[in-house]
Amino acid sequence: MDGYTLTFAPLLPWGLFAAMTAATAAVLGLGLRKRSSGIGFRTLAAAALLLAIARPTVTAEQRTELADVVLVVADASPSQQLGDRAAATSSAVQAIQDELADDGGLEVRAVTVAGGGPGTNLFAAVRSAVADVPPDGVAGVVLVTDGQVHDVPEDASALGFDAPVHAVLTGAPGERDRRLVVDGAPRYGIVGEAVKFRVTLLDEAAVGQAEPVRITVPGGHVAERVLQVGTPTEFELPLERAGVVAVALEVAAIPDELTPDNNRVVIHVNAVRDRLRVMLVSGEPSMGLRHWRNLLQADPAVDLVHFTILRPPTKQDATPVQELSLIPFPARELFDANLDDFHLVIFDRYHLRGILPPQYLSNIAEYVVRGGALLDIAGPSYAGRFSLVNTPLREILPTLPAGEVIERPFVPELSEAGQNHPVTAGLTAGAADWGPWYRMVRGMPVKGESLMWGADGWPLLQLSRVGEGRVAQLLSDQSWVWTRPGPGGGPRAELLRRVVHWLMKEPDLEEHLLKATVSDRRIDVLYRSVDTPLREITAVAPSGASTTVPLGPAAAGTAIASFEANEAGLWTLQGGNLSATALVGAADALELTEMRADPGPLEAFVGATGGGVFWVVDHGGPPPFRPVMAGQTAAGDNWLGLRRHGRHTVTGLAQSPLLPWPLLLALAVGALFLAWHREAQ
Asked: Is the pTM of this model over 0.70?
């Protein structure tokens, strides 16, 4: 395509040329006023001379037309895989490309946006696809989608170009889909408290009806609750222990709905401890006490209350009254009124000294049975007449003293149970380099498990469950020797940390565990048991079909398995008395919130750009396209407009004079001759 422009390049500066032109016009005007003979020929001569001086030039541009970009965006999110939407999308995109292929003034770009992120983000793909196109180079955007787009800009100017955006919708109006929507579910909660969240069952065709919802709570227990369709219902989930707590809710599918994938939701809440309140009661001072304090105070999440009982209240000496502490020992507050405020009670080398009455020690035993935790670091006094075993704590302590204190070097070692128990299994690395301890109390195990042995194979570390609570007993006050510099150390800090976490019922340290994690369609299973090995587990699909999954050995006391899920939805895994749940294909909760085809999310924005919304089912495909100019309507009832900008690039220039100067000179001379001839007559 060529373009022509007329330009002037006068022989004189523009100012002088303008003055000359004005003077010539004035003289000719005076002559015309006086009706001088030959004034017409004089005017023609002056015009010819002025044109010769102005040098009019015709510039011919050799132009190449630039194509305007049409962007076709295909939505391939999970909601677009329902029914025949994927086929309709593919056919619509192909039809658009075929129709526009022969238009040399358009460049068609096709982009497919798959799922996998948080929601369907088509406009992020639009910005990326036209990032190299100037704002006046976009003819239009065609979105082939079901309308469920989650990154629609608030304003049309946010796109960075002025062109219509059209929506070609797959699916059909009036589709039905039942779905569960969770609102207000927190990601974190505090152990010992309850988190609240709301669940709404949505079904536009059954608003107000009552529908049962199946609830699977931690531990595999199943309950049922009736929900009113369209009405938010509040649920309360108590967090009894630290770790991830999962609750699954599921409603039965109906025959004519789009998909059952959003009929189920799984709510994950990570339960954490706000503050770990620990009461440390120590008897005779020792090196181990200082290390206990350092270990507990190093953790900012631990609130430590420490009391050292050095002498009974009946002891008398000559200490002046003004030098004695006037603050009485708050025994009642600690061991009666506020005992349940503590998560863990530690006795370090404590023995009967006439300070704590039996009722307070009985309170501690009841506190453990109700779900509390007790750690006893037994010193030599545990083997004597003032032992804690001679108190109500006898009912919960896992050992009975044999009446002897062993005082010679020995190296702690893991028992057979300890090699598989999660509290001690990870300590086996470097066990050959463990240093010796020098004293322990000989104790006879009466309940629980012996995870570590000391001298002569006597129990060193004993763990036990009592009612809802837990008790751990270390039958030596020598663990601190592992912290001394030089050879002969040991994993004291890690050992005690794990013991405390086991007492706090940390899920990762449970003796019996069945855990499932999901990656795409693959379910990875971890099974752990210290006494009941399994060779297989049962996996129950959302449809109710069950399959057997073999387990392979892994680390001590654990087994693993992995399998591909052939159904999307909530899977239930069962092994022995354990169960776990795994949700496949529902990672994108935003995508599953609404699966029906709906122009609503796009309608206002598309209208603001001048585009239109069209259903594939109404036209049997996308409607035809028409070229439109700026300011014209870009959409009709059955057509889509693409804005043409007429852009081009100049590839060459050719300049030529409008009138050759010899011709102008001859014209001027001829006109002057005719003017002289007329005047001569």
From this structure: no
